[in-house]
Amino acid sequence: MTKEINVAILGATGAVGTELIDLLDRRNFPIANLKLLASGRSAGKSLTFKGESLTVEEVTQESFQGIDLVLASAGGSTSKAWAQTIVDAGAVMVDNSSAFRMNPQVPLVVPEINPTAASQHQGIIANPNCTTILMGMAVYPLHQIQPVKRLVVATYQSASGAGARAMEEVKIQAQAILNDQTPTAEILPYPLAFNLFPHNSALNELGYCEEEMKMVNETRKIFGDPNIRISATCVRVPVLRAHSEAINLEFDAPFSVDQAKAILNNAPGVKVVEDWQRNYFPMPIDATGQDDVLVGRIRQDLSHPCGLELWLCGDQIRKGAALNAIQIGELLLQENLLHPSKTVAVSVGQ
Amino acid sequence: MTKEINVAILGATGAVGTELIDLLDRRNFPIANLKLLASGRSAGKSLTFKGESLTVEEVTQESFQGIDLVLASAGGSTSKAWAQTIVDAGAVMVDNSSAFRMNPQVPLVVPEINPTAASQHQGIIANPNCTTILMGMAVYPLHQIQPVKRLVVATYQSASGAGARAMEEVKIQAQAILNDQTPTAEILPYPLAFNLFPHNSALNELGYCEEEMKMVNETRKIFGDPNIRISATCVRVPVLRAHSEAINLEFDAPFSVDQAKAILNNAPGVKVVEDWQRNYFPMPIDATGQDDVLVGRIRQDLSHPCGLELWLCGDQIRKGAALNAIQIGELLLQENLLHPSKTVAVSVGQ
């Protein structure tokens, strides 16, 4: 029987945090004790785990004593602030923020793609960006058979990507518009209900936003292929939960559609959804609450003899965040990768 | 002073029909008489033109006597059913349906792109598909300077593309979801509110839907370039009006971003909308009710040295349909292309 471990969730009250609590239960993660941590603002709230009410505690220097695994989902600055404390306490941090993802000392892991990278950890393992995970799940199985040379992606990202409050804001905006009132925007920069806009993360000098650069750089790191050429357009759409992506792939030689379908039908964590008669393909409402990434519209690229087009939908909070983090935890347990030499602290100066 | 002509709108009560009526007024189209035509179901309704109430008439064999210009927007089967009658009556039909677009005898015209094609008409001129018009407006000015070799596009298409009833359905669905009820779908195949799905037009043997093939084939015809390679992914999104498109362009040689912006800044019917500080780019709510196609996020393609990425939003009913049709009418007047030899009837057998 698997040894039970002590787990802490940092950022327990957020959209990903509550999903982590739910998934730890449903996946029967071997937990001795679960500690729910958050900022002082959320401390004192009660959340339910396995039918028991747990009180959210404010994170302090002492919070991580005796903890084996920390699932962190409270934003980059919180992760940076507590990483050293967590590692010093002998715990491993699986970090859902972008703080350490591109740090060469930190493995960036999707268990279906690069599980062996986890063994290199020095106390921190990064969970990739949601759109990157979802894309990797559909693209890597093909990339293994024939390397992807070039990838062009356009995303359709739900409000959940901006957190629980953004999801609530979109509903409030929708109700205002239905009532012939002018919607207001506080969490997101512009009204999202019945509207959409390019992803509002910071732009680099070439005009690409951070979200797009995550898809470029994180995919290269996860695939272990610095040569794959990627360009992305990230867009927020008025969907509550689950992201969609239109992906164009270019290979060095033709890749048959039938072979691609067969490969994706057998890929772990991927479900091919295609019903041409009903014109039924992956939709966010069907991907919501699902572990699998739904892939469909697998077809020859009409503009290139060595190209394929794909369409996918995946639950951004599930496989795009919480599920992947827990799968990393399961991998650490399975490969006996918890409790590394505690004195090798990662550089948190990134 | 321009001669005033007799105009009929076939399909006057639809989303495009009502926009045609409004635009004929606002653009001071030189009208002697305006006749509003529709099916028997809509006959008897009243619509306002220039402050006067006009009664919608049921279309009959006699409807087009004395008419100079018919703006048709009642669907492909209605256009096919009445085309010969219209041409025989000596009128020119500007058809918004897809019925005649790929007919070699029928010019397919975007006045900013291929105005001279209109002179070849034999009684019918086709108005292109909305997503095709919007894309052409942004791409053709660049294509003129350096030919586009390959184009990959992903669309974000509003409910208006499926008509006024679809727009209403999305609102009803949204209200149901906000009330924690299950939404129903009657006009569109699946719920669109807080959801999205690949365009539901019929699929060909390669898995491309009609909407996607329109973007491929119509663009080639309008640009007069059968060699441009195009692949498209068309998606319906829960936006009420105005379509968006993420466009990836590949040229034979590098195309500088600064030059592209300068060209698009001077392109007729195009407005460059880019504010990097505010992360403000084209959005459907800003494109709604605008004549111009809003273009932004003009940037170097990170995956190809000869590539550019673009983002656009355009009013699907305005420039994507009604405005373009009226501009064709204006072109016909200006170039004296109404009343061609009446006996040359077009083949309507396509």
**CATH topology-level fold name of the largest domain in chain A:** Dihydrodipicolinate Reductase, domain 2
Instruction: Give a count of the beta strands of chain A, DSSP E runs of length 2 or more.
Output: 16
User: How many angstroms separate the termini of chain A?
Assistant: 39 Å
Uncertain spans of chain A: none
Which secondary-structure class do the elements of chain A indicate? alpha/beta
Order of helices and strands of chain A: EHEEEEEHEEHEHEHEEEHEHEEH
* Largest interface, C-beta closer than 8 angstroms, per-chain residues: A-B, 62 and 62 residues
The CATH homologous superfamily name of the largest domain in chain A equals Dihydrodipicolinate Reductase, domain 2
C-alpha Rg of chain A (nearest Å)? 20 Å
CATH architecture of the largest domain in chain A: 2-Layer Sandwich
> What is the CATH level 1 assignment of the largest domain in chain A?
Alpha Beta
Shape of chain A: globular
- Strand order within the widest sheet of chain A? 5-2-1-6-7-8
Number of helices of chain A: 8
Keywords (chains A, B): Amino-acid biosynthesis, Diaminopimelate biosynthesis, Lysine biosynthesis, Methionine biosynthesis, NADP, Oxidoreductase, Threonine biosynthesis
Catalytic activity (chains A, B): L-aspartate 4-semialdehyde + phosphate + NADP(+) = 4-phospho-L-aspartate + NADPH + H(+)
Function (chains A, B): Catalyzes the NADPH-dependent formation of L-aspartate-semialdehyde (L-ASA) by the reductive dephosphorylation of L-aspartyl-4-phosphate.
Domain Semialdehyde dehydrogenase NAD-binding (chains A, B): 6-121
